[in-house]
Design a protein that fits this description.
Order of helices and strands: HHEEHEEEEHEH
Strand content: 5-15%
Strand order of the largest sheet: 4-3-5-1-7
Helix content: 10-25%
Structural class: alpha/beta
Largest sheet: 5 strands, mixed
Number of strands: 7
Oligomer: single chain
Number of helices: 5
Radius of gyration: 16 Å
Shape: globular
């Protein structure tokens, strides 16, 4: 998928926005208190991003919300790192309270909500947009509801938060830390949050 530069958005009826620069978008610095996450509460105004993820599981295998939660706990998390999980059947599972910082995007956890869909890999393990029609509908419904609560948040894919290594203002495929969510979430959901 070719990268999208803000100049390319001018051909659409949506007003172009500045590109995402990782040095400008990170959350404020974290305090040195190791127990800060026990007392940190995110308020609706704190949410700058809704970050879309995939579970990076093969499309021919089931990966339940319970399995996701157990895998994250095995990695040392208190619970699943995402706030919401969307199964192949389109069921939206609440995984973490929206007022609690996530554990899904380093540098952005205290100013974002994480939404993950089941899948993201073809049966052979290559990254691919494996969302079912049910997942697409459920994700759009959830994102509309979240934007209503957090009207200033941007919807981005996890890969969109990768560093701009060549400082050209565009996060290009060779700069992605990972392919997640395996589709262009920024472009697909731009109309949900960008004011016309």
């Amino acid at each position: 998928i070719p990268p999208i530069h803000s100049d390319q958005l001018r051909s659409t009826p949506i007003t172009p926005i500045p590109p995402i620069h990782s040095d400008q978008l990170r959350c404020p610095p974290i305090s040195s208190d190791p127990l800060r996450f026990l007392t940190t509460i995110m308020k609706p105004d704190d949410i700058k991003y809704i970050v879309i993820h995939c579970s990076a599981t093969r499309s021919n295998m089931t990966y339940s919300a319970w399995q996701l939660d157990q895998d994250h706990r095995a990695r040392g998390f208190a619970m699943a790192g995402y706030h919401f999980y969307i199964t192949r059947a389109g069921v939206i599972e609440s995984m973490r309270p929206p007022s609690m910082p996530g554990a899904h995007a380093i540098g952005y956890n205290r100013c974002s909500l994480g939404v993950c869909y089941e899948g993201g890999l073809r049966p052979d393990g290559t990254p691919w947009d494996t969302r079912t029609p049910e997942q697409r509908a459920a994700m759009r419904k959830l994102l509309k509801a979240l934007i209503a609560i957090h009207p200033n948040a941007r919807i981005v894919g996890h890969r969109d938060l990768s560093p701009d290594l060549n400082h050209n203002g565009v996060i290009e495929p060779h700069e992605w830390m990972k392919a997640c969510p395996c589709f262009d979430a920024f472009k697909e959901y731009l109309s949900l949050w960008h004011k016309r």
